[in-house]
Design brief:
about 0% strand; Glycosyltransferase; two-stranded antiparallel ribbon; globular; single chain; about 625 residues; mainly alpha
């Protein structure tokens, strides 16, 4: 192993990551601009103009620039993906086609783009008829209406599914009146949207009711009478800056639905439009979300190392720790009714506490532990927050415990693995009662992971899809994340955990590409993100030295070395390395983040640097051996 080569690459990547910090010493990153997001924003602004100021449109120039940007992003096949690096898909192509309905009919370039989109949709959907488009969109999401209803609503509002009220028959009715029930009832009500989509449920349910109300006069009257209360709920959960979840698509869907439903002047609509206007980028595009700064900061801290952050001086570490402390929610969140103690992906008003970001923040803060009361209190609240969120099956969902039956509300292996890492690190420093909860939560989480492992040895994540893998899944990401979490368990591993690890590591090795890298699954193109995560997991296996428990270090080291060599060659030959599209929202919405390749690569290089140090330890150091684990955790 060329230790100097590892060291040079490590220093290069570490320097780039440190240089990406903001003045506040945290990381903000940059999300990709999105044709999907831009299409929804353009449509919302066009409808707002048509209703609020038809004679003197305020947003015309913004709409024109957005449409020009959309046209420039069309793929060669005529369709659109969610990013400029994504393959075409039905959802985004329908949305861009709908947005282009607002284009100047005399603009030949834009109309040519429309014809290309219609050609692509005809091939994919069998035609441009309303029934064919509705079937194609609905088939993509199944029984989950979280995205199908908004997409079809926008298509109707843009005139793409036919004229008049009857076009609304292609939009499934959403029971917006159920939002008036207590939040604790939502799980029993089994709403047709995921927990984060309550604003869409209300706004699009009202739009459908306004344009094509149900036939029953009694039920129609009941729904009409509950509309003001639902709007009051929507107003109460709207963030101060107007942006629901800091997400332009969700906020745009709400704005266009309300503006078309004689509610254009309502404060919720006006604040949503203001958010959209403020979120536009200089090139006329919109990102899928504002930023992931809390998540990126947590990941960056972990990548920089154990036992002190390499390259971050003491004063900067104090500021960074304080910043992470300040992002913890100390009050019940009005959006999901989440109790205090969690973290969101961003400190901005539209953030909502979730399990992945809470676990990530706890792991990051474990690097700063110095036995202060506030450290203990922050860790206690975060650990207990995860424990309360745990589903009955032992797994961890994203936002709400048992809220529903759809993707975000089910347990997820990757989020569960991250929660295990958080509990493992903090158990030794919690008080006895909190230790008990964390140990119990950890034990149940391990049982869930063992049950959730697929027959081929993989775990499939919720948040990180891969557009080249079957069903857009990413077993490489999910498996690597779970392996790292299991390897952090102290003491001798339970035989069940050991068997699960053996199967997972076998899969990682067998699914390594011939070039030494990994993609999202078997035969998919190697990427920096997946290769870094898989390599990190295999090096972690080598460091844990599991040979005596059934894992052969020879083929492990060969696979890890090949993966590391792929990363080193990528760093040496392409210093800019483009980020790869990542699927989230159950791998049906795509984005990329410029910092992911740096963060994931640095994590792998740090482990490689520890495994194959430039200056090997002396014999006396080797004889002393590694320190005993801080605690033991029953599996």
């Amino acid at each position: 192993m060329d230790c100097q080569r590892i060291e040079d690459a490590y220093q290069q990547v570490r320097g780039r990551l440190l240089a990406a910090r903001t003045e506040g010493h945290y990381w903000e990153g940059e999300l990709s601009s999105s044709p999907l997001s831009t299409a929804t924003a353009v449509t919302a602004l066009a409808i707002a103009d048509r209703v609020l100021s038809p004679d003197q449109p305020r947003y015309m120039e913004m709409v024109k620039r957005g449409l020009a940007w959309i046209a420039a992003q069309a793929n060669e096949d005529g369709g659109w993906g969610d990013t400029d690096r994504s393959v075409s898909n039905v959802s985004t192509t329908v949305l861009c086609w709908a947005a282009l309905a607002w284009a100047d009919p005399e603009d030949e370039a834009l109309q040519a783009t429309v014809k290309g989109a219609e050609s692509w949709l005809t091939k994919e959907s069998g035609g441009l008829g309303a029934a064919q488009i509705a079937q194609a969109v609905t088939a993509r999401y199944g029984r989950d209406r979280t995205f199908s209803v908004p997409i079809l609503t926008m298509a109707v509002l843009s005139g793409r599914l036919g004229p008049g009220r009857q076009a609304w028959k292609w939009v499934k009715s959403l029971p917006f009146e159920l939002a008036t029930f207590p939040a604790s009832w939502y799980a029993a009500l089994r709403l047709p949207v995921v927990s984060y989509a309550l604003p869409a449920l209300i706004a699009m349910g009202i739009a459908r009711h306004t344009h094509l109300p149900c036939r029953s006069p009694i039920w129609r009257g009941v729904r009409a009478s509950l509309k003001p209360k639902c709007m009051a709920i929507l107003s109460a959960i709207q963030p101060s800056n107007g942006g629901f979840l800091e997400a332009t698509p969700l906020t745009s869907f709400v704005a266009m639905s309300l503006a078309s439903s004689r509610l254009a002047g309502h404060p919720v609509t006006l604040k949503a439009v203001e958010f959209i206007v403020n979120a536009v980028r200089p090139d006329g595009s919109w990102p899928i979300d504002t930023n992931l700064s809390t998540w990126l900061t947590s990941l960056s801290v972990g990548a920089l190392g154990e036992g002190g952050l390499d390259g971050v001086d003491e004063s900067e570490q104090v500021a960074l720790k304080q910043w992470l402390h300040n992002q913890q929610y100390t009050r019940r969140h009005p959006y999901t009714q989440a109790a205090p103690g969690g973290w969101a992906w961003t400190p901005l008003p539209g953030g909502v506490p979730d399990a992945d970001d809470t676990a990530g923040a706890l792991v990051a803060l474990s690097h700063f532990w110095d036995d202060q009361d506030r450290d203990r209190r922050v860790a206690k609240d975060g650990s207990n927050w995860l424990y309360r969120l745990q589903n009955q099956d032992g797994g961890i969902p994203t936002f709400c415990q048992g809220w529903g039956h759809l993707a975000f509300d089910r347990s997820s292996p990757d989020i569960t693995a991250h929660s295990i890492r958080a509990w493992t690190r903090w158990i030794p420093n919690l008080m006895p009662n909190d230790q008990y909860r964390a140990r119990r939560g950890l034990k149940r989480a391990l049982s869930y992971l063992i049950r959730a492992q697929r027959g081929d040895g993989t775990w499939c994540p919720l948040w990180f899809g891969n557009q080249e893998a079957p069903q857009d899944e990413n077993p490489t990401y999910g498996t690597a994340r779970v392996v790292v979490a299991l390897l952090e368990l102290p003491g001798k591993l339970d035989p069940r955990v050991m068997r699960a690890l053996e199967q997972a590591v076998h899969w990682l090795v067998l699914n390594q590409n011939n070039d030494g890298g990994w993609g999202g699954g078997f035969g998919t193109r190697s990427s920096t993100e997946e290769t870094a995560l898989a390599t990190e997991a295999l090096i972690a296996c080598l460091k844990r030295d599991l040979n005596h428990e059934g894992l052969d270090g020879r083929w492990l080291e060969s696979a890890a070395s090949n993966g590391l060599d792929w990363l080193l060659r990528r760093i040496e030959s392409d210093p800019d390395w483009s980020a790869s599209p990542i699927g989230f929202y159950f791998a049906k919405l795509w984005y990329y983040e410029t910092l992911y390749p740096l963060i994931f690569a640095l994590g792998a290089l740090r482990r490689a640097r520890e495994q194959w140090p430039l200056d090997p330890p002396s014999n006396s150091d080797e004889e002393q051996g590694e320190p005993e684990p801080r605690s033991t955790v029953s599996s």
